[in-house]
Amino acid sequence: MMRxxxxxxxxxxxxxxxxxxxxxxxxxxxxxGTSLRDEGRTRVTDLIGDEQRDNRRERADYRRLRRxxxxxxxxxxxxxxxxxxxxxxxxxxxxxxxxxAYTGPAVRVSLxxxxxxxxxxxxxxRPDDLVVHxxxxxxxxxxxxxxGARAMQIMDQRVIATSAVRCVGNTLIxxxxxxxxxxxxxxxxxxxxxxxxxxxxxxxxIYRKYVRAYGLGYSVRTLARAVLPAYTxxxxxxxxxxxxxxPRGAH
Length: 251
Hints:
Elements: H1 41-77, H2 81-97, E1 102-112, H3 134-146, E2 151-154, E3 157-158, E4 165-168, E5 171-174, E6 177-179, E7 183-188, H4 191-200, H5 202-214, E8 217-228
Antiparallel strand pairs: 1-7, 1-8, 2-3, 2-7, 4-5, 5-6
Helix pairs in contact: 1-2, 3-4
Protein backbone atom coordinates (compact mmCIF):
# COMPACT_ATOMS: atom_id res chain seq x y z
CA MET A 1 0.00 0.00 0.00
CA MET A 2 1.40 3.39 -0.94
CA ARG A 3 1.94 5.83 1.86
CA UNK A 4 0.78 9.43 2.15
CA UNK A 5 1.99 11.52 -0.74
CA UNK A 6 2.03 14.94 0.90
CA UNK A 7 5.14 17.12 0.59
CA UNK A 8 6.26 20.24 2.40
CA UNK A 9 4.47 23.37 1.34
CA UNK A 10 7.19 25.30 -0.50
CA UNK A 11 7.39 28.84 -1.75
CA UNK A 12 5.55 29.70 -4.96
CA UNK A 13 7.79 32.49 -6.26
CA UNK A 14 11.28 33.58 -5.10
CA UNK A 15 10.69 37.34 -5.10
CA UNK A 16 8.46 40.18 -6.23
CA UNK A 17 9.48 43.78 -6.73
CA UNK A 18 6.61 46.21 -6.76
CA UNK A 19 6.63 49.93 -7.43
CA UNK A 20 3.33 51.84 -7.44
CA UNK A 21 3.27 55.63 -7.55
CA UNK A 22 6.29 56.18 -5.33
CA UNK A 23 8.93 53.45 -5.40
CA UNK A 24 8.54 50.37 -3.23
CA UNK A 25 10.91 47.40 -3.27
CA UNK A 26 9.64 44.08 -1.97
CA UNK A 27 11.55 40.95 -1.04
CA UNK A 28 10.44 37.36 -1.42
CA UNK A 29 7.30 36.36 0.44
CA UNK A 30 6.80 32.68 1.11
CA UNK A 31 3.32 31.56 0.20
CA UNK A 32 2.44 28.90 2.70
CA GLY A 33 -1.00 27.38 2.86
CA THR A 34 -2.56 25.18 5.49
CA SER A 35 -4.13 21.85 4.66
CA LEU A 36 -7.64 21.94 6.05
CA ARG A 37 -9.07 18.64 4.88
CA ASP A 38 -9.51 17.21 8.35
CA GLU A 39 -11.67 20.09 9.62
CA GLY A 40 -15.34 19.51 10.32
CA ARG A 41 -18.00 20.55 7.85
CA THR A 42 -19.11 23.57 9.90
CA ARG A 43 -15.55 24.79 10.24
CA VAL A 44 -14.98 24.41 6.49
CA THR A 45 -18.10 26.44 5.68
CA ASP A 46 -17.06 29.17 8.09
CA LEU A 47 -13.56 29.35 6.61
CA ILE A 48 -14.86 29.68 3.07
CA GLY A 49 -17.33 32.37 4.07
CA ASP A 50 -14.71 34.32 6.02
CA GLU A 51 -12.25 34.08 3.15
CA GLN A 52 -14.75 35.38 0.62
CA ARG A 53 -15.86 38.27 2.85
CA ASP A 54 -12.25 39.25 3.53
CA ASN A 55 -11.48 39.11 -0.16
CA ARG A 56 -14.40 41.35 -1.12
CA ARG A 57 -13.50 43.88 1.55
CA GLU A 58 -9.81 43.93 0.65
CA ARG A 59 -10.52 44.28 -3.05
CA ALA A 60 -12.83 47.23 -2.39
CA ASP A 61 -10.19 48.87 -0.18
CA TYR A 62 -7.52 48.21 -2.79
CA ARG A 63 -9.53 49.77 -5.61
CA ARG A 64 -10.19 52.88 -3.53
CA LEU A 65 -6.54 53.25 -2.48
CA ARG A 66 -5.32 52.49 -6.00
CA ARG A 67 -7.42 55.34 -7.37
CA UNK A 68 -6.04 57.68 -4.71
CA UNK A 69 -2.43 56.66 -5.39
CA UNK A 70 -2.85 57.00 -9.14
CA UNK A 71 -4.39 60.47 -8.81
CA UNK A 72 -1.67 61.66 -6.44
CA UNK A 73 1.06 60.15 -8.61
CA UNK A 74 -0.22 61.80 -11.75
CA UNK A 75 -0.40 65.16 -10.01
CA UNK A 76 3.06 64.83 -8.44
CA UNK A 77 4.63 63.51 -11.65
CA UNK A 78 3.83 66.76 -13.42
CA UNK A 79 6.05 68.74 -11.07
CA UNK A 80 8.44 66.28 -9.41
CA UNK A 81 11.06 64.57 -11.56
CA UNK A 82 11.68 61.93 -8.88
CA UNK A 83 8.06 60.82 -8.91
CA UNK A 84 8.06 60.76 -12.70
CA UNK A 85 11.14 58.54 -12.64
CA UNK A 86 9.53 56.25 -10.04
CA UNK A 87 6.49 55.92 -12.27
CA UNK A 88 8.74 54.91 -15.13
CA UNK A 89 10.48 52.34 -12.91
CA UNK A 90 7.11 50.94 -11.88
CA UNK A 91 6.04 50.57 -15.50
CA UNK A 92 9.32 48.82 -16.35
CA UNK A 93 9.04 46.35 -13.45
CA UNK A 94 5.30 45.67 -13.81
CA UNK A 95 5.67 42.77 -16.29
CA UNK A 96 8.09 40.84 -14.05
CA UNK A 97 5.84 41.49 -11.06
CA UNK A 98 2.78 40.06 -12.82
CA UNK A 99 0.93 43.35 -13.19
CA UNK A 100 0.69 43.18 -16.96
CA ALA A 101 -0.71 40.44 -19.18
CA TYR A 102 1.72 37.89 -20.62
CA THR A 103 1.40 36.22 -24.02
CA GLY A 104 3.45 33.30 -25.26
CA PRO A 105 3.75 29.52 -25.52
CA ALA A 106 2.70 27.66 -22.39
CA VAL A 107 2.03 24.34 -20.72
CA ARG A 108 -1.24 23.60 -18.96
CA VAL A 109 -1.54 20.96 -16.24
CA SER A 110 -4.93 19.70 -15.07
CA LEU A 111 -5.49 17.84 -11.78
CA UNK A 112 -8.78 16.20 -10.91
CA UNK A 113 -10.35 14.05 -8.20
CA UNK A 114 -10.81 10.36 -8.87
CA UNK A 115 -14.31 9.04 -9.59
CA UNK A 116 -16.04 7.53 -6.61
CA UNK A 117 -16.10 3.71 -6.81
CA UNK A 118 -19.64 2.43 -7.42
CA UNK A 119 -19.20 -0.47 -5.03
CA UNK A 120 -17.62 1.51 -2.21
CA UNK A 121 -13.99 2.03 -1.34
CA UNK A 122 -11.62 -0.93 -1.62
CA UNK A 123 -10.03 -2.18 1.56
CA UNK A 124 -7.29 0.12 2.80
CA UNK A 125 -8.33 3.05 0.59
CA ARG A 126 -9.43 6.27 2.28
CA PRO A 127 -11.63 8.99 0.76
CA ASP A 128 -8.63 11.26 1.23
CA ASP A 129 -6.72 9.19 -1.35
CA LEU A 130 -9.21 10.05 -4.08
CA VAL A 131 -8.96 13.85 -4.04
CA VAL A 132 -6.41 16.39 -5.19
CA HIS A 133 -4.59 17.98 -2.29
CA UNK A 134 -2.97 21.33 -1.71
CA UNK A 135 0.47 19.76 -1.85
CA UNK A 136 -0.34 18.23 -5.26
CA UNK A 137 -1.14 21.64 -6.71
CA UNK A 138 1.96 23.06 -5.07
CA UNK A 139 4.13 20.29 -6.51
CA UNK A 140 3.03 21.28 -10.01
CA UNK A 141 3.54 24.99 -9.31
CA UNK A 142 7.03 24.42 -7.92
CA UNK A 143 8.04 22.20 -10.83
CA UNK A 144 6.87 24.74 -13.38
CA UNK A 145 8.78 27.56 -11.70
CA UNK A 146 11.84 25.32 -11.58
CA UNK A 147 11.38 24.75 -15.32
CA GLY A 148 11.76 28.45 -16.02
CA ALA A 149 8.13 29.59 -16.15
CA ARG A 150 7.98 33.29 -16.96
CA ALA A 151 4.38 33.71 -15.80
CA MET A 152 1.79 31.49 -14.18
CA GLN A 153 -1.96 31.30 -13.82
CA ILE A 154 -4.07 29.02 -11.59
CA MET A 155 -7.62 28.65 -12.85
CA ASP A 156 -8.47 32.20 -14.07
CA GLN A 157 -6.10 34.11 -11.77
CA ARG A 158 -2.53 35.27 -12.28
CA VAL A 159 -0.10 34.04 -9.61
CA ILE A 160 2.31 36.49 -7.97
CA ALA A 161 4.72 36.33 -5.03
CA THR A 162 2.03 36.89 -2.42
CA SER A 163 -0.37 34.31 -3.87
CA ALA A 164 -1.14 31.35 -1.61
CA VAL A 165 -3.14 28.26 -2.52
CA ARG A 166 -5.18 26.54 0.18
CA CYS A 167 -7.38 23.47 0.04
CA VAL A 168 -10.64 23.40 1.99
CA GLY A 169 -12.45 20.10 1.66
CA ASN A 170 -12.18 19.22 -2.01
CA THR A 171 -12.13 22.87 -3.09
CA LEU A 172 -9.30 25.26 -3.75
CA ILE A 173 -9.13 28.81 -2.41
CA UNK A 174 -6.92 31.25 -4.26
CA UNK A 175 -6.92 34.92 -3.33
CA UNK A 176 -10.37 34.66 -1.80
CA UNK A 177 -12.02 32.81 -4.70
CA UNK A 178 -13.24 29.22 -4.27
CA UNK A 179 -12.75 26.68 -7.08
CA UNK A 180 -13.84 23.09 -7.57
CA UNK A 181 -11.79 20.49 -9.46
CA UNK A 182 -10.46 20.02 -12.04
CA UNK A 183 -7.70 22.46 -11.13
CA UNK A 184 -5.80 23.98 -14.06
CA UNK A 185 -2.31 25.47 -13.77
CA UNK A 186 -0.97 27.30 -16.83
CA UNK A 187 2.69 28.31 -17.08
CA UNK A 188 4.17 30.38 -19.89
CA UNK A 189 7.71 29.58 -20.96
CA UNK A 190 9.73 27.11 -22.99
CA UNK A 191 7.40 24.08 -23.31
CA UNK A 192 10.29 21.61 -23.56
CA UNK A 193 11.83 22.84 -20.30
CA UNK A 194 8.46 22.90 -18.55
CA UNK A 195 7.65 19.33 -19.60
CA UNK A 196 11.10 18.19 -18.47
CA UNK A 197 10.67 19.84 -15.06
CA UNK A 198 7.32 18.13 -14.54
CA UNK A 199 8.82 14.77 -15.48
CA UNK A 200 11.74 15.29 -13.09
CA UNK A 201 9.62 16.19 -10.06
CA UNK A 202 9.68 13.54 -7.34
CA UNK A 203 6.45 14.84 -5.80
CA UNK A 204 4.61 14.66 -9.10
CA UNK A 205 5.95 11.13 -9.62
CA ILE A 206 4.34 10.14 -6.31
CA TYR A 207 1.07 11.79 -7.34
CA ARG A 208 1.12 9.88 -10.62
CA LYS A 209 1.29 6.61 -8.70
CA TYR A 210 -2.08 7.56 -7.24
CA VAL A 211 -3.26 8.46 -10.72
CA ARG A 212 -2.53 4.91 -11.85
CA ALA A 213 -3.85 3.26 -8.70
CA TYR A 214 -7.03 5.23 -8.04
CA GLY A 215 -7.84 7.16 -11.20
CA LEU A 216 -6.90 10.67 -10.10
CA GLY A 217 -6.78 13.05 -13.04
CA TYR A 218 -3.48 14.29 -14.48
CA SER A 219 -3.01 15.74 -17.93
CA VAL A 220 -0.39 17.99 -19.51
CA ARG A 221 -0.76 19.77 -22.82
CA THR A 222 1.22 22.35 -24.74
CA LEU A 223 -0.38 25.62 -25.80
CA ALA A 224 1.17 27.34 -28.81
CA ARG A 225 -0.12 30.68 -27.55
CA ALA A 226 -1.66 31.50 -24.19
CA VAL A 227 -2.68 34.86 -22.75
CA LEU A 228 -2.18 35.07 -18.99
CA PRO A 229 -4.07 38.02 -17.49
CA ALA A 230 -2.48 40.70 -15.36
CA TYR A 231 -2.88 40.43 -11.60
CA THR A 232 -5.53 42.95 -10.55
CA UNK A 233 -5.99 42.22 -6.85
CA UNK A 234 -4.42 43.88 -3.86
CA UNK A 235 -1.01 43.02 -2.46
CA UNK A 236 -0.45 42.41 1.24
CA UNK A 237 3.20 43.10 1.92
CA UNK A 238 4.73 41.38 4.95
CA UNK A 239 8.33 42.38 4.33
CA UNK A 240 9.81 45.25 2.35
CA UNK A 241 13.53 45.78 1.84
CA UNK A 242 15.75 47.61 -0.59
CA UNK A 243 17.91 45.04 -2.46
CA UNK A 244 21.62 45.39 -1.82
CA UNK A 245 24.46 44.66 -4.18
CA UNK A 246 25.83 41.12 -4.11
CA PRO A 247 28.95 40.66 -1.93
CA ARG A 248 32.27 40.95 -3.71
CA GLY A 249 33.16 37.67 -5.41
CA ALA A 250 29.56 36.34 -5.36
CA HIS A 251 28.31 34.66 -8.51
